[in-house]
């Protein structure tokens, strides 16, 4: 888990915002925590053995969105951007959510994360009202219905 902690920290530092409102330090300390199977998942992308990116999925208990999962920590290191790794990681998380029987996946992102927001739109995510309090200005909340939109699961494309 040390490698996961390191890349999660790198992700957080790249945001330039304090994630204390998400209990980020506790998340790092207790990894895999909510990302543990069978209800959660952690994905690491490697290129020639080097850690290139990550993505995580966890159950989300929400009265507004029953049977939902939340995608977190989608990150690709700068040296590996532009090769589609972010898409592969996000699709892997969506596929895991489908296999896990979830109905939808929620996430939040920021205004300045333009490439990520374009990817999410391409994957079938749509804007929704906030599902939790995020004190960071410019937060966007998105949802993908797993059985009604987005790309076919990875397992059906091979």
UniProtKB/TrEMBL annotation:
It comes from the Bacteria. GO terms for molecular function: acyltransferase activity, transferring groups other than amino-acyl groups. InterPro entries: Acetyltransferase_Enz, Acyl_CoA_acyltransferase, GNAT_dom. PROSITE patterns: GNAT (PS51186). It holds the Pfam family Acetyltransf_1. Residues 1-148 form the N-acetyltransferase domain. PANTHER family: FAMILY N-ACETYLTRANSFERASE, PUTATIVE (AFU_ORTHOLOGUE AFUA_2G01380)-RELATED (PTHR43305:SF1). This is GNAT family N-acetyltransferase. It comes from Ramlibacter ginsenosidimutans.
């Amino acid at each position: 888990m040390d490698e996961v902690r390191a890349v999660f920290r790198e992700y957080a530092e790249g945001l330039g915002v304090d994630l204390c409102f998400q209990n980020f330090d506790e998340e790092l300390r207790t990894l895999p925590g909510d990302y543990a199977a069978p209800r959660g998942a952690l994905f690491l992308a490697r290129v020639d053995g080097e850690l290139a990116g990550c993505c995580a999925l966890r159950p989300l208990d929400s009265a507004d969105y029953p049977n939902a999962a939340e995608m977190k920590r989608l990150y690709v290191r700068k040296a590996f951007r532009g090769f589609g790794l972010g898409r592969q990681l996000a699709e892997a998380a969506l596929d895991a959510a489908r296999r896990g029987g979830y109905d939808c996946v929620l996430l939040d992102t920021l205004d300045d994360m333009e490439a990520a927001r374009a990817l999410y739109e391409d994957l079938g995510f749509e804007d929704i009202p906030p599902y939790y309090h995020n004190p960071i200005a410019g937060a966007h909340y998105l949802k993908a219905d797993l059985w009604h939109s987005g790309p076919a699961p990875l397992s059906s494309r091979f």
